[in-house]
Design brief:
3 copies of one chain form a homotrimer. Chain A is an alpha/beta fold. The first copy, chain A, is about 40% helix and about 15% strand. Chains A, B, C: It comes from Ekhidna lutea.
Amino acid sequence: MNYNLNNLPERTSKPRTEGYTMVMDKGLSLREVEDLIETSGNYIDIVKFGWATSYVYPKLKEKIALYKSAGIPCYFGGTLFEAFIARDQFADYQKILDEFGLEYAEVSDGSIEMDHDIKCEYISTLAKQVTVLSEVGSKDAAKIIPPYKWIQQMETELEAGAWKVIGEARESGNVGLFRDSGEVRQGLVEEILTQIPEEKILWEAPQKAQQVWFIKLCGTNVNLGNIAPNEVIPLETIRIGLRGDTFSHFL
Amino acid sequence: MNYNLNNLPERTSKPRTEGYTMVMDKGLSLREVEDLIETSGNYIDIVKFGWATSYVYPKLKEKIALYKSAGIPCYFGGTLFEAFIARDQFADYQKILDEFGLEYAEVSDGSIEMDHDIKCEYISTLAKQVTVLSEVGSKDAAKIIPPYKWIQQMETELEAGAWKVIGEARESGNVGLFRDSGEVRQGLVEEILTQIPEEKILWEAPQKAQQVWFIKLCGTNVNLGNIAPNEVIPLETIRIGLRGDTFSHFL
Amino acid sequence: MNYNLNNLPERTSKPRTEGYTMVMDKGLSLREVEDLIETSGNYIDIVKFGWATSYVYPKLKEKIALYKSAGIPCYFGGTLFEAFIARDQFADYQKILDEFGLEYAEVSDGSIEMDHDIKCEYISTLAKQVTVLSEVGSKDAAKIIPPYKWIQQMETELEAGAWKVIGEARESGNVGLFRDSGEVRQGLVEEILTQIPEEKILWEAPQKAQQVWFIKLCGTNVNLGNIAPNEVIPLETIRIGLRGDTFSHFL
C-alpha cells in the first residue's frame, strides 16, 4: 500500500480462499482490460463475461489470454449456458469451454424453466470438466423464491459438485437477492447464512449500498460479484473501512 | 461470431438499411474511439456528437477522421444546429459542416421555438448539402406534444427531405418519447407506427428497458439511438435474444 | 474552440481565479488520465483522489506526476485525512503530503465527530504546509446541519486559513447540500451566499441537475466539484449555454 494506516481490518491477498471479488466485463476493449489489470489486478479474483456478450465480442481469445496472463480466470455468464441448453446444444457448450481454454463455468436457470434435478445433473457433468459456479435466483423480479427453497437448491447444487453458489442480482441489482428498489432481502440472506457456509457463497452485489450491507454483515472478506470494473478500487476501500460508508464500522 | 448458436433472429450487417445503432459520443478521447471501433465498430452505424460538445472538444477533426476510417459517419447534435439558428448564424452552420467534412446533419427544435414551416425549410435547404436527420419532440418534460402532431410533423419533415426522423429522448431518456420516469409513452409510439414507416424512424432509447421495449415491439432490427458507447455490445445481445430481457421473446 | 458562435457567456481560462472545476478520480488508470488530460485538461483546475482510494491505488506517484505535468494539482479526499486523525496519525499524514509532493490538502469531518475548534487548528496547522480546502457538511444523510451553522463553520474555517470551503455532497450527490433525492437544499445555499463570498466556495455537485442549478444561480464561472471525469466536457457546455438545460438561460 502507498502509506501506513494503523489498525485496518485484515484483507486477504491473492490467491484468495475468501474475500473474492468477481468483476463483470460486458465488453471492455483489450486496452481497457490492460488498464484494469494495472489498477485492480491484485483485487480481482475472477471475471465473468456478462450473460452472452462473449458471443458478439470480437477479440475474445485475446481477451481471455490477457486476463490469464494476469492470473485472472474468466467464465461465461450463466445466460450463455442457458442459451445453449434452450437450443439443445449442451455438447456444443462443452466444446467451446475447451476451445477457449476456460477453467470455470456457470450453471444457472435464471431465464429458463429447468427441473432442479436436471440442473444438478448439468452441474455434476460440468464439474468433471471445469470448476462450476452455480447460480440460484430468477432474473424475473416477479418470481419470488422462498428462503427455504434457496437453501435447498444451494445445498443440493453444492452436493452436485458446484465449487460455489452465486446469489442472483443481475447487472442492475434489482432481482433475486434484492427487491425492485435494490434493497437487500435481509431475511433471505440471514436465513441462508444459518445453513450454507459463507465461504461457499458468492453474492452478486453491483450497487454500492449492497456491497456495504454485505461487508457490514459478513466482514471485510465476504465474496462479492457483479462488480463493475471501475468500482473495484472503491470496493477495496469499503472492505477495509476507508470509505465513509464503513468508516465507523471498522474503527 | 465466436461460436455457433442455432435459431437466433437474423441481424442485419453493415452497411445496414435497417437495424441502425446510433451512438452518442459526448467527449470520448481518441484512444477511447479506437477502442470503441475495435469492440463495436461492426455494430455502430452512425455517431452523434451529443448536443454541442463538439464546440469544446479539442481534437474534433482527428476524431471525425478516426470514425470515418472505420466506416462510421458522424454528425453534430441538434442542439448545435439550434445554437446557430438562435444566433442567426445558419450560414456559418452550413460552412462548418463542409469544413469538418460531415455528410449528415440534424435539424431539431427541442430547445427553441420554431415555426414548423421554417423547420421544414431548413430541412429542405440542408438536404441539398447533406443527409438530414430531423428530430421531433421537446427537451422540455412539461411540453407534451399529442400523437397526431408527432405524426404530422414527422410526415412533413420526411416530405421536406429528411432521410429519417428521430424520436427525442435526450441522453437521460426522460422526455419526448418517454415519461419523467423513463417509461415509454406506448400509445404515442404505437400510433406513430400506424402512420410512419418504421424504417424511417430512429428511436432514441438510452435506457436498457427502453431498448428492450422497442425490440420486443419492432423486432431485432429496429433503429435505436442515443446508445452509450459501452452499451453497444449489450444492445447487440438484446437484439438477438441473448440477454435475459429478450431471451424468451426470441426462443 | 472549433468554430465561432456569437454571444456566448464569457468562460474563464486557466489559471482560473473563478469557475473552478474539481474532478473526482476514484481509480483512473494512467492511460485514462492521459486521455482525460487530452480531452479535458484545459477545463480541469484540480483533481481529488476520492476519499481514501489513494491507499489502494497501485501507481500513485506516476499518476500525480502525470497530472502535475498537465498543470493540474491533486489532493487526497477528506476521508483520508479523517482516517489518519481517527488513528492519531496526524504527523504521518503531514509526512505523506510531503512524500507525494502534494500542494493541497482537505480537512473535513464528514465521517468523524470533531470539535470545531480542533478542526480549525488542523486547518491552521496544515495551512502552513499546503493550500487547504476545508469541507463543511456531514456524509450522514440523517445529520442535518442548520444554515446558520454552515455559515459559522465556513467563516471560521476561512479565518483559520482555508483557501476555499467545500460544500459536501459525496460522489452520489445525496447528502450535505442535497436531499436524499439529490434535490438542492435551496434555502441553505441561498443563505450561505448572503454571508460567504461566492469565490471562496467550491460546491460539490456530481449530478447534472445540480450543476445546472448552481450555474443558473451563480453563473458560468461558479466553482463546482466532484465532477466525474467523463462529465467535464458536458459540464463545459452547460456552463456556456450549449446544452438544452441552460440553452435559454444564456440566450
